[in-house]
Amino acid sequence: DAAPFAPFFRAALAVAREAGAIIKAAFEDGQAPPNPNIKDANDVDLVTATDQAVEALIQSRLRDAFPDYAFIGEETVAANNGQAPPLTARPTIICDPVDGTTNFVHGFPFVCTALALVVDHTPIVGIVYNPILDQLYVAHKGYGAWCNGQSLPRHRAAHAMDARATLFITEGGHDRSPIAMDAKIGTWRHALAADGKYPPVRGIRCTGSGALNLCMIARGAADVYWEVGLHAWDMAAAAVIVTEAGGMVVGDEALDADRRTTWDPQATPFDVMGRKAMAIRKRDVAFMRETIERVIDYPCPRD
Ligand code: IPD
User: Fold this and answer.
1) Domains in the chain and their CATH numbers?
2) Fewer CB within 10 Å, N side or C side of the chain?
3) Distances in Å between the alpha carbon of 256 and those of 79, 277, 298?
4) Any binding-site annotation on 234?
């Protein structure tokens, strides 16, 4: 209750549970349409009536309670030709009503609502709720991270990062352009087969939800997550959860090949609108630098 954004935290938690009930009912009734709508110009980027209804609910509840806060939501941006409003220093609610929409449509149970409060470009509150598996991840900057009331991380907290024992999460993602495919497939090959410089990782996983991938890092259930092409609503909430669980998240400032050399891990804040994320389960700058060298960057327009 002493946390500066405790009122927002409480309101966001309540609406995340309401959203979860709607998503779970639609998921279990098999209401997800077999032929969902696709977003403009990308036939693997799906949207359903549930995404839109849940975002409308979240927007009305939180905008009524916090009228001075800005709002960036996945479906509101989609309705505005994909154009996100600029992120300013003003407190900004960032919302993904259904992260893992493809999972939702197929009945694959990694589906969540992600809600963040970003203040002065820094994620402060993060709530990620998977109503299908009933896993509620929450964090408030400076106050720790929790899953269903238990503090995070749950696994492997004491172990040092070890390249030979890495469980690596990444995704196919929506961008199937030749340059993106070369980078993604090249990174998979490099991670699995290695090439003499680093040992191969133990395994690769994808949950199909950027927010839940980050939560797997916060739990300590996986060691590294990398993806290019994420949006602010996929990353902002879970980024607080990872850092409050003792992990580390970097974005465009560290992953972009041109900006890498100027990246200062002490001074550079996570770039919420930068479309890129690399997260590791422990704050280990040397391991982060080594891991960044193992992935192949490619350009991606900012949110
Ligand atoms: C997508 C998921 C997916 C990731 C994509 C995201 P959506 O979000 O997080 O894992 O690979 O980059 O856009 O469309 O399900 O909300």
Assistant:
1) 6-151 (3.30.540.10), 163-294 (3.40.190.80)
2) N
3) 29, 10, 8
4) yes
